[in-house]
Design a protein that fits this description.
Chain lengths: 103, 103
DNA sequence: ATTACACATCAATATATCTTGATATATTAT
DNA sequence: ATAATATATCAAGATATATTGATGTGTAAT
């Protein structure tokens, strides 16, 4: 039950649904890209990414000073059905706006 | 987005997941049966049933002074996948304990 | 070693949600 | 009409969750 509620709770927030859809659409992005695209402060983004990661939707790959987030693969059927449903909604997400000052 | 969050929010609560699983297991039940099986006060049950109904998981059939709740049919693929996932969890639900004082 | 950037976490506050008891409404039997 | 049962809704307090700014950690360049 706890795992279920954790999974469900992660997508029970408009901001997280948007971020998840953004990553699912754009593929691997780093935190500063999300920060720059959504115009939200970094700590807020970071917190939401942690929740989505802990719930099994995202994975992180740290390379250098950046943390690259992407949709976790492989993914179980239930989480896939949630992703599919989110994809079918007509959610407005910002354009990818690269935010890292050096690379 | 709002419909999605409403659907998700309805199953983002242990009590509601248990009630939903209970109805999915036992078929059509009336409110006093749930009240008597779960040993919860009536207003609490009623509130949760309303949320599950408004989220598209349950339907009501009023006959006489009773309100009979059951899983809504037909049900879209996404809600079905949620029900399926809940069914796969190992959720403890009480035995059906008929509670209506007359019938 | 120092500076700059990327990211994570903490603590306080704000906001939303759940629970509960009381109260209201509706139906049926007498 | 009155009483009893079934159900719904309201308002208050309790609890959980989100947001924010500050602070901490790690990496890379100078």
């Amino acid at each position: 039950m706890n795992i279920f509620l954790n999974t469900i709770g992660a997508v029970n927030d408009a901001t997280r649904v948007e971020i998840l859809h953004f990553i699912n659409t754009n593929g691997e992005v780093c935190v500063c890209d999300i920060e720059n695209s959504f115009l939200m402060i970094q700590s807020r983004i970071s917190r939401h990414l942690k929740i989505l990661k802990d719930a099994g939707f995202l994975k992180v790959d740290r390379r250098g000073r950046w943390a690259y987030y992407s949709v976790r693969t492989p993914m179980d059927e239930f989480r896939q059905s949630i992703l599919k449903e989110i994809g079918s909604l007509d959610i407005k997400i910002p354009l990818l706006n690269k935010g890292c000052k050096s690379e």
